[in-house]
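Predict the assembly for these two chains.
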Amino acid sequence: GESVGLHLPTLSVQEGDNSIINCAYSNSASDYFIWYKQESGKGPQFIIDIRSNMDKRQGQRVTVLLNKTVKHLSLQIAATQPGDSAVYFCAEKRMNTGFQKLVFGTGTRLLVSP
Amino acid sequence: DGGITQSPKYLFRKEGQNVTLSCEQNLNHDAMYWYRQDPGQGLRLIYYSQIVNDFQKGDIAEGYSVSREKKESFPLTVTSAQKNPTAFYLCASCSLIEAGGYTFGSGTRLTVV
């Protein structure tokens, strides 16, 4: 749902582990989903996206899984590196409407220790 | 290179002052957005605009104002009515006809002194 200023949950992993960041979305009509990475003091950067007609999409070291039945999105990062430490946001969007607005999740802070 | 530019990177405001944050994009995007981010928290929508000379309030518009006189520009004014303006402000843009998410600027950190 809408980000409402809640403090971020944190996921701590060791370098080399696989990370899984989860997100529950709110609108069953949403048909486009994005994961963003935000490093400290910077703007969010696009990582990967997925449309609702897919349930899995892979990028370089990242995989996004979409479960529309339970309105759940996850981001998997393989062989996590210290440079992956950041806050990760999911976002949902309804395409093909006259109203285009991303709705952001609350975010998860990923901490990678060497 | 196409992108979205926010300025200044750091801004200090005295109590009772209005300040304006700049956001310019050369991506030919139709829609532009302003978000506020408090430390350790998520993004909250202040205002957005989908076409020139039109804009809509977001979830926390009180104490802020915007204008959209040009497609490329969407400045945000933080007025003296905003009681707690210290935050990180992010501008974003997107196309309304192409699939894709937002492109974000690098942010402006506003501090009240």
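Residues 6 and 106 of chain B are 6 Å apart (CA to CA). Chain B has a mean pLDDT of 92.
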